[in-house]
Amino acid sequence: MFDLGTFLDWFVVLVFAHAAVTLLTVGLGRAAERAPAGKRIQGDAMPEGQVAREIRANVRFCLLIPAALALALQGRWIVWGPDSPGWAVISFFLCGVVFDVYFYALHRLLHTRPLMRFHRHHHLSRVTTPWSAQSVSTVEALGWALGYVGVPWLLGHVAPVSLIGYFVYLFYNVFGNVIGHANVELGPPALTRSPTVWFAHPYTFHALHHARFTKHFGFGSTFMDRLAGTEWPDWVPAYDQVMAGKPLRHHGKTEPQA
């Protein structure tokens, strides 16, 4: 049964929370891009009007995602587990792993010929900014919403996650997605080596997806790309080049190695 009052309560809170995290993270990302010592990833110029287009898409995204979450929360569609500290931590990681698998599948589907038209809006940002992360079409935003709602719903049938752990993961998800589209490398070298590289990656990893369009379909980790064979073999040299103060140019092309 739909409860309008409960829906609006959740919706208002979630809109403000999502917008606040987005604006805070965009501010941090833009500051990092402008820092004198910043390691710029892509050296090519952005087209005129890109940021304005991205901001408009962010407004839509920051309304649609809270609406989907509020709809699920008011309807009590999801079975939640205990909020003990230990289970909240486990829930955080469970949500992360399942969302990464879901996102990889969604992203691969969006790169197929029939569905690419719904993903093309995101790839208009070849050189990315923090605003690029949530600059997607309405259809793609619905795919994100399905993941945000579907992950805890699915886990509720197997291992119900903590609501607190889930909300912490959502914060991490939005923060990491937005800051991860900044055109500056903030990831330490440890993220290029095992075992860390399996669970996280530097920003250059995803920047190559925007520059080249293919491969690197994962969200915040490399394990799905590694298992599926969609990892660019030269991404570590690309990262090293960026860290040496030499931005990538010409669609993410790396310089010849000595």
From TrEMBL:
Domain of life: Bacteria
TM stretches of this protein: 12-32, 61-80, 86-106, 127-147, 153-172
Amino-acid biosynthesis keyword on record: no
Alphabetical list of Pfam families matching this protein: FA_hydroxylase
GO CC terms, sorted: membrane
Keywords, comma-separated and alphabetical: Membrane, Transmembrane, Transmembrane helix
Primary subcellular site in the record, as a coarse category: membrane
Localization (cell): Membrane
GO biological process, one term: lipid biosynthetic process
Domain Fatty acid hydroxylase: 93-230
Gene Ontology molecular function, alphabetical: iron ion binding; oxidoreductase activity
Stored InterPro entries: Fatty_acid_hydroxylase (IPR006694), Sterol_Desaturase_Related (IPR050307)
Identification of the protein by name: Sterol desaturase/sphingolipid hydroxylase, fatty acid hydroxylase superfamily
Organism field: Nannocystis exedens
